């Protein structure tokens, strides 16, 4: 009739997600806080990858950066100080369909949660972990953190921090089954985005340490680094962080670094003269715990009942 | 109950004495297979229709030195012609591989006058004069204590069949016990064939030879013979310990993830699950520590999977903060606490009921949650299923308190018949109705539906911070108060659904009421039964719901002149030099006094031992005596 086709179907429009679909309200970090940049980078990656918001879970511990899940419009878990990693592993263990982003701080990850950190690296579950390292306890108002530099004055060490800071990169490159270690700085959104995207694409635990300014308590720690990019060393490689004209322009010091070489990654991490940024190490062949934990997910009710009955019969008299 | 039996046995008449129940122990150095022989004998008894309770006697060390008093390793088997619910009082018959390990049992008050002791006599002719002397002295001492000692050349007899009698002796003893208790030797042969099935025909044949030899030896040389009649119609049964029952319950409940960290005496749950859990598609995760174990389970639960963690007191202490988060975030979770002696490392292998108040109140702030306590091994199975359902219905953690007594006790229980409705339903991934908030509390019950990650439109952030109905962080006074009220209301709603507990004895009241909880039920009721048999006015109530408590307690308590809370946890005894108002009462008494305003007294033991009917009977005499003195 009227020359129109009668058997047409309207294709339902595919769900398309915009940045807004990942933005969960106004973040309440201090003005100038480095956390804003990380949030934006993650939201951008979610949109680029068109991750359905209901399949994204942001998991965190306690601290300024651990407010992260509240500012995502996805599922979120804002749990206990130091304990985001066990929770994230538990979520992932039986839900391979979920995309997990862990936000943790230097106190959360490297101090109170250090035990979980070592083992999460060893479990190597498929998720992205972001260490917001601002070298200070911010939320509790200026105490020394395990990554505070020697001499750092805080409310707990008013005469300056005593001990040498823990180096998360060197530590992690010694943990068994480490599979991805990257380092970024919050004040360079291009680099931050590029490295987080690599970490997210990595099959296994993609760990990115982010040097992150706390304008209130530790702004001075990263001031020099921010002002003089020549104190940073950009690691690029065709199999790691590929060089782009933008990155080339932003970083005066560059080095070809093959991220599959653990020995070289350790040497790069130990370089405190020129702080390495980029992908230090990546080995997608490391075993991931997910392959084990996903076992038996589709077991039917009938099979379960049969197995339980067989188990009971083993004890039967 | 069995005193006349021992007398009959002491005469050496050789005739078979019928007894309603008997307690047998096999005690040895560790590594001599006493437990294996005892479990096999327990299985023979159970398969022959007897009620059985076996409990292992475990030294704290893995391999303590030989012939040491503290190294006593072995097993107790209580056999009866009705369901056996506890380990009973003193043993009637003991097989011992050396005399020193018996001292360890004597300090545990395991024997009485007339207990038959079948003792290995090779030590009498040992090369070492020191050992010969120790043996002779012990023999004299045991006889002075009134034990009936029969010296047996166990090793010498076994040498006729094997060059290594140290490992073969246990099967010889199994044969002996079958003869003494009148079981067909074939029953024992079947057990051995099963036990050694993986070791090859030769090993099975040798052990069969030893069993037959033991059987023949006892028939010819041991002058005591007993007969425990079978139970009427025991029905289809399985033989399990409490931890296996928990493991089976976890599977029958459809729990998907169990995350744990090794801790005595809870670990054997994971041993069993390690073997079997994958068969139902479940995941057993051994975490890096106790905290990570509950964190992992909480993560799985948040993602919609039913999860459980299994621990003991020190582990529960470590899990405290996460437990509070599960309450605050309203996550269903099952926590099994197999209680042991505390505080601190305490008595890791021994029983205590000391985690009651820590379970109910142990978290920072007010964190109402459900706490239930199975009283029997059978209930260890069913309560896990109940716990999962309550956890989901009320969106809350549920703690299941068992203890080392239930964990290691083995008995035949009715075989459960698994149902589809026991299993957790699959998770809902349908779009979430955005009009329903993440914590849409029902003001009557505090319950609310829960969005699961993957449900479009249900996105919310679970937080341990004070929050509103829509899961937004809120520091205002009203939000915090309302959240507290709603979480607390769950317990009130659950209590309304419960029935008052049944009174064992006289429901209309009387002189004395004993109130117990958890694993002590069998001992308490047996003690009460004995006293009632003598005409005493005593009854018992056994609680299974600890938080919330079962309703109607005050009304029941008021019908009795005196109410005493019984438990295996500490309280200042009445005769201690402490002024009455300052006496520290037991954890259970504190709960009951608060709930009922009745002057509930405490009677407790913290000796690392399960309560026995005899100690309960003595406690009844003590309290009735005091009551009579007060009245006169």
Automatic annotation (TrEMBL), chain A:
Domain Thiamine pyrophosphate enzyme TPP-binding: 62-208
Residue ranges constituting the Pyruvate ferredoxin oxidoreductase beta subunit C-terminal domain according to the UniProt record: 254-291
Entry keyword Oxidoreductase: yes
Organism domain of life: Bacteria
Flavoprotein recorded as keyword: no
GO MF entry, a single one: thiamine pyrophosphate binding
Stated name of the protein: 2-oxoglutarate oxidoreductase
UniProt lineage: Bacteria, Candidatus Eiseniibacteriota
TrEMBL record, chain B:
Keyword terms, alphabetized: Oxidoreductase
Chain spans, region Disordered: 1-20
GO process annotations (BP): response to oxidative stress
UniProt keyword Isomerase, yes or no: no
Chain ranges of the Pyruvate/ketoisovalerate oxidoreductase catalytic domain: 31-216
Keyword Oxidoreductase belongs to the record: yes
Signal peptide positions (record): none
Record-annotated Pyruvate flavodoxin/ferredoxin oxidoreductase pyrimidine binding domain positions: 249-476
Molecular function in Gene Ontology: oxidoreductase activity, acting on the aldehyde or oxo group of donors
SUPFAM superfamilies recorded: Pyruvate-ferredoxin oxidoreductase, PFOR, domain III, Thiamin diphosphate-binding fold (THDP-binding), TK C-terminal domain-like
Superkingdom, taxonomy of origin: Bacteria
NCBIfam families, per database record: OAFO_sf (TIGR03710)
PANTHER family: 2-OXOGLUTARATE OXIDOREDUCTASE SUBUNIT KORA, PYRUVATE-FLAVODOXIN OXIDOREDUCTASE-RELATED
Name recorded for this polypeptide: 2-oxoacid:acceptor oxidoreductase subunit alpha
Provenance organism: Eiseniibacteriota bacterium
